[in-house]
Amino acid sequence: MGIKAIFGGRPVLEFADEHSRRNFLRNAALIGVGATYVATNLGDPIAFGNADRTATSSAAKSDLDILNYALTLEYLESAFYTAGLKAKLLKGRELELVDPIQQHEANHVTAVRTTIKDLGGTPVAAPKVKFPDGTFASRASFLKTAGVFEELGVKAYHGQVPLVKDVAILAAAASIAGVESRHAAIIAQITGGNPFPAPIEAHLGMAPVLKAAMPFLAK
């Protein structure tokens, strides 16, 4: 099941340094993201069009790698809603419904970072986010992007939940996935879409998620 690309397929993440960018690419490769969906440089940890899974097979399903990848996506989603509300495009009941979503996404960042630390891992640093011109030009463009974003987030979490081994991480991921589903339903209701499109939630692997959300990563 596919999903529309967001941000016009343009780069939106800019990492503070090459080390952070390469770590993100490495973690993406470990959990099965196709290298053809990211812009690579000579010497990147994965070759263009191929991921060296032989060397990383023991870490292919690493819970911490999954969490750090999810954290990067949460950084992006939190920044999106923060910028959207700052643009003051909504009012009344719409604002009452969307404002808590921004707060939830910020809380998700904190929750995932805390879980990573509690498990002895190191949370990835927040990348710089630069949204394309027009993303917040109007209420319609903001809400349309939010709708695609939320559907993508729901499918992304449900795609990773079956791969999680640790019970504590599984509980955290499942709880966030449930909230993301509520967000998707609210945005669909506001925009006139279907808040409950199927009796069983769809899911996507990380490769199509990355392709839809950010096909290129800026340095």
Structure description:
With 219 residues, the chain is mostly helical. The protein contains six helices and two strands. It has helices spanning 18-30, 63-86, 92-118, 139-160, 167-191, 206-213, and strands at 13-14, 128-129. It has a two-stranded antiparallel sheet with strand order 1-2. Helix 2 runs antiparallel to helix 3 (92-118), helix 2 runs antiparallel to helix 4 (139-160) and helix 4 (139-160) packs antiparallel against helix 6 (206-213). The longest helix has 27 residues, at 92-118. It is globular. Residues 29-61 and 215-219 have low confidence and may be disordered.
In short:
By secondary structure, this protein is an all-alpha fold.
- Low-confidence segments, given as residue ranges, are 29-61, 215-219
Average pLDDT across residues?
73
What share of residues are in beta strands? Answer: under 5%
What is the first-to-last residue Cα distance? 30 Å
Write the layout of secondary structure elements.
Layout: E1 13-14, H1 18-30, H2 63-86, H3 92-118, E2 128-129, H4 139-160, H5 167-191, H6 206-213
Antiparallel strand pairs: 1-2
What would the keywords be for this entry?
single chain; 219 residues; 2 strands; globular; disordered C terminus
